[in-house]
Task: inverse folding
């Protein structure tokens, strides 16, 4: 299974076989490269390598540093609780892991008995206080560390105490595939970075307090942020029909399709906007522009809901201008178009109190008119009220 964690070594856990030996076994190169892009194949790879050399258990993992694990392949020989105990109490006592990470030992596979004798391992804390108490007897290891292209990979294949040591042929079988395994790790690392970049961009778009749609020139949806997804779920102004963005009102839809056609023929930098009406609330304002991505043109449509308030605005105004909480709330209300008497009634305070607060707001923002206040605060981007991970 793939199981990212903070730190692992090629110690004894993973697939469990019979440990009878792997003389003459072959590892298919395609099995290794299938694991580069296929998560299920990666999950199986530790078992595949272990089976090829008659190991009882197997593990492999890679990360961006020696103490970081992005992905791990093993088949759950030890329980999650046992592995948690290993992480909490025994990582620093892992003699095998320490042996194969030395600079002179990297980028090849070793029979770890070369570095750690049976006598030393038999008396070790990790063997006597972690391995034996769980009823296990993992005693032999064929392992190696890969350092390549800014990543670190670990391989560990294991046998029990009563089983025969790994021989030179079995060591050679794994060594001949170390380069392929290293390239597989590198491919997975690059794909992981691409996926992370995509998730990062999506999270950034989800922070915006506007519904953002990326469309093909014919209006077919390519992607959208969380606010856009919620807008489509409401279906009160915009909807999807056969993956194409449509307005529910026929007149609005005619304007939308016309705007999309015009945008697809425009050069970048030009934009238009239309209203998308809905039955109960003020219409959405839909801004439409085109962007070129490589040789292709895409449309970006951004829907703004004038009735939606930015829950983060009060705290940002306070941070920028040193307003009190009450002053920030009054400033935000003024920007929303509320008058003095309306504010006095809403807040349950005297009209003079509101006037004093507005005077303080103007002084702190260095402005003298409500229009300046609105322009100053209106220049701040609208952020989504939804929390990350919602």
Result:
């Amino acid at each position: 299974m793939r199981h990212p964690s903070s730190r692992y070594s090629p110690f004894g856990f993973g697939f469990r076989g019979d440990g009878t030996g792997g003389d003459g076994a072959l590892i298919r190169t395609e099995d290794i490269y299938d694991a580069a892009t296929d998560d299920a194949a990666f999950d199986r790879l530790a078992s595949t390598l272990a089976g090829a050399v008659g190991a009882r258990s197997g593990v492999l993992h890679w990360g961006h540093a020696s103490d970081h694990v992005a992905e791990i392949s093993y088949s759950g020989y030890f329980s999650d609780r046992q592995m948690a105990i290993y992480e909490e109490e025994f990582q620093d006592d892992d003699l095998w892991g320490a042996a194969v990470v030395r600079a002179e030992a990297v980028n090849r596979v070793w029979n770890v008995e070369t570095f750690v004798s049976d006598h030393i391992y038999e008396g070790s804390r990790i063997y006597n206080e972690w391995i034996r108490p769980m009823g296990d007897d993992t005693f032999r290891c064929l392992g190696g560390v890969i350092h390549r292209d800014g990543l670190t990979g670990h391989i560990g294949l294991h046998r029990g105490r009563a089983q025969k040591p790994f021989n030179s042929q079995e060591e050679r079988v794994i060594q001949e595939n170390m380069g392929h395994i290293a390239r597989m790790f590198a491919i997975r690392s690059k794909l992981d970075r691409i996926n992370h970049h995509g998730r990062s961009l999506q999270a950034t778009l989800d922070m915006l307090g506007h519904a953002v749609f990326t469309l093909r020139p014919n209006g077919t949806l390519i992607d959208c942020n969380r606010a856009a997804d919620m807008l489509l779920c409401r279906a009160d102004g915009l909807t999807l029909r056969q993956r194409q963005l449509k307005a529910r009102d026929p007149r609005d839809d005619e304007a939308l399709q016309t705007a999309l056609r015009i945008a697809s023929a425009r050069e970048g930098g030009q934009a238009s906007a239309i209203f998308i009406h809905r039955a109960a609330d003020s219409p959405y304002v839909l801004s439409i522009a085109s962007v070129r991505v490589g040789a292709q043109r895409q449309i970006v449509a951004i829907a703004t809901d004038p009735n939606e308030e930015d829950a983060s605005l009060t705290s940002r105004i306070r941070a920028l201008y040193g307003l009190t909480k009450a002053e920030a709330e009054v400033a935000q209300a003024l920007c929303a178009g509320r008058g003095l008497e309306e504010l006095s009634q809403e807040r349950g305070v005297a009209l003079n109190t509101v006037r004093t607060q507005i005077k303080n707001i103007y002084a702190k923002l260095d402005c003298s008119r409500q229009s300046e206040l609105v322009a100053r605060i209106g220049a701040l981007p609208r952020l989504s009220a939804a929390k990350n991970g919602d």
